[in-house]
């Protein structure tokens, strides 16, 4: 019986944290902004960053 599990590379969590901080700053600085939709957001392997494949804002 084969093993289905394989190790995945470490995710770039530091860049994800910075991205969420930046997004939070945008929201705090834009009172007219009503909604932001980022879907999906890919967290790439360490050193490769984060990518929002689709984004929409309204406000």
Give a brief outline of the structure.
The chain has 59 residues and is an alpha+beta fold. The chain is 27% helix and 24% strand. This is ATP-grasp domain-containing protein.
Question: What report would you give on this structure?
Answer:
With 59 residues, the chain is of the alpha+beta class. The chain has a domain at 35-59. Helix content is 27%, strand content 24%. It contains one helix and four strands; from the N terminus they run H-E-E-E-E. Strands 1-4 form a two-stranded antiparallel ribbon. Strands 2-3 form a two-stranded antiparallel sheet. The mean pLDDT is 91. This is ATP-grasp domain-containing protein. It comes from Novosphingobium mathurense. Pfam families: ATP-grasp_5.
